[in-house]
Amino acid sequence: IHSKGNLSPKSQQSCPECQRRENVLHNEHERLLHVYNENRKLNEQLRLATLTNHQYQEENSKLKQHLTKMNTHLKEYQVNYDLLKDKLTLEKINQPKQNIPTDPIKRLRHELQIYNEVIAAKQQKEQEQIDYYSFQSWTPKK
Question: Which domain of life is it from (predicted)?
Answer without folding.
Answer: Eukaryota
